[in-house]
Amino acid sequence: MAPGYDLVIVGMGSGGMVAAEFAAGLDLRVAVVERSRVGGDCLWTGCVPSKALLASAKVAHHMRTADEFGIGSVEPVIDRARVWERIRAVREAIAASDDNPDRFQEAGVDIFYGAARLTGPNEVAVTTDDGAVTRLETRYVLLATGSRPIVPPIEGLAEAGFVTSETLFELTDPPASVNVGGGPVGVEMVQGFTRLGIAATLLQKGPQILRKDDPALVDLLVAKLRGEGVDVRVDVTTTKATVEDGQKVVYGTENDRPASWRADEILVAVGRAPNVEGLGLEDVGIATHPRGVVVDNRGRTSVHSVYVCGDVAGRHMFTHSAAYEGVRAVRDIFFPGTGKVVASVPWCTFTDPELAHAGLTEAEARTAYGSGVEVWHQELAHNDRARADGVPEGAIMIVTHKNRIVGAHMLAPAAGEMIHELALAIEQDVKLSELSQFVHVYPTISTSIAQLAGEAAFGKADKLRWLIR
């Protein structure tokens, strides 16, 4: 039996790492159980490698389109093996520095490698590959076990073979063509692949990719993707996969008509499933549902010594959300009073341009509030910085209810950097007109936010015209 701890964290991905560092800084006795590699999906199979791929793809795209800026275009010579080598080098550099296990151990965090299982409300058993078991006594447990790619039940898929985000970046000889799904991962990758000379077909079940985002902005993005040569297919069902003449063939329907698609490889990117198996949750009376572990608005399970954060909590499957929830859980456990995981979580799909989202869509706002909803919209074609940079495709939309900001959506370069101002405004119940009181740097894309805020303020001023002397 290992010495007693204040907190045992299961999983050392995005949520677990931040929670462990925060807890260790409070001089708590902290242990982490990790079954694989410190850093989790974000470092090894998700955010970091995918953005490294997109960075290489963007360079290739700039070379092809340089004539638009008065510079001679050139078709880039792309060494895909070297691109993948760079992706792995970026991961390793982070793993050797910010995500280095030694850094956490020096901060006082004990790391145990193996499979974790709850054997009671205050005990975690860790089983190593050789079968040895260590039991950790603890006051509290924080589950941060993340999620994994969903593999759809398509006939012949397993036999044909496929890759997911967990295996894509381990390739040494990336394929010349792929089929992908239409979620955020698939959409990012299909643009990146196409720019790197990898012919890719995006197969989307239903009429719209990125179904949680504003449809008008998604339509603009689809037009941009197709303009770059991305083969976007919607209203697709997939029924079977085979290998024919050395290629993989996916069969199904498109708009209810029989169809098939050929590729050298199939990338399955249709969503993620929470990692709840093998944790012993049912043995200690903790309930689960298809999206993860059942928790209250404090992140607690029905066993109040066990908290959950990140993907396995089933709230938002984002790295930044996992980190936020992990810190909030530690705050709720060890500080007086209670904390709530209630913040409006923004997100971004890192296409080029980026598609960012915070709060409600227009449809959600009208359902929630009925009357009093307005949508403020400006296309980037009217933004001086966007025109100067040659990136006029896109728009900024702000959804208000009685002038208070309840949603924000943008398709723009660096939208993921800009969305935070509006996410904070939503969280603080700010009126759009109030943002006109802040001076935005010119020329920037964010001046479009200031212009929309100015429109709201001028409209308010117009109502007061009768007071002018």
Total count of helical runs of at least 4 residues: 14
Q: Can you tell me the CATH architecture of the largest domain?
A: 3-Layer(bba) Sandwich
In the CATH hierarchy, what is the class of the largest domain?
Answer: Alpha Beta
So, the CATH homologous superfamily of the largest domain? FAD/NAD(P)-binding domain
Overall domain count: 3
Helical residue percent band? 25-40%
Compute the number of strand runs: 23
**Shape label:** globular
Low-confidence stretches: none
Give the N-terminus to C-terminus distance in angstroms. Answer: 81 Å
Q: Structural class, please?
A: alpha/beta
- Major beta sheet, specifics? 7 strands, mixed
Specify the oligomeric state.
single chain
What gyration radius follows from the Cα positions, in whole Å? 24 Å
| Strand content range | 25-35%
- In CATH, the topology of the largest domain is named FAD/NAD(P)-binding domain
Would you mind describing this structure in some detail?
This protein is an alpha/beta fold and 469 residues long. The protein has 3 domains: 2-39 and 99-148 and 273-334, FAD/NAD(P)-binding domain (3-Layer(bba) Sandwich); 157-271, 3-Layer(bba) Sandwich (FAD/NAD(P)-binding domain); 353-467, Enolase-like, domain 1, CATH 3.30.390.30. It has 14 helices and 23 strands. The chain has helices spanning 14-24, 40-44, 47-64, 80-95, 101-106, 157-160, 165-168, 184-195, 215-227, 319-334, 362-369, 384-388, 415-427, 447-463; strands at 2-10, 30-34, 109-113, 115-120, 123-127, 133-143, 147-149, 177-180, 199-203, 231-233, 236-244, 247-254, 257-263, 265-266, 272-274, 288-289, 292-293, 306-308, 347-349, 354-359, 373-379, 395-401, 404-412. The strands form 6 sheets. Strands 1, 2, 3, 4, 5, 6 and 18 form a 7-stranded mixed sheet that branches. Strands 19-20-23-22-21 form a 5-stranded antiparallel sheet, sandwiched between helices. β11 and β12 (247-254) form a beta hairpin. The longest helix is centred in the N-terminal third of the chain and has 18 residues, at 47-64.
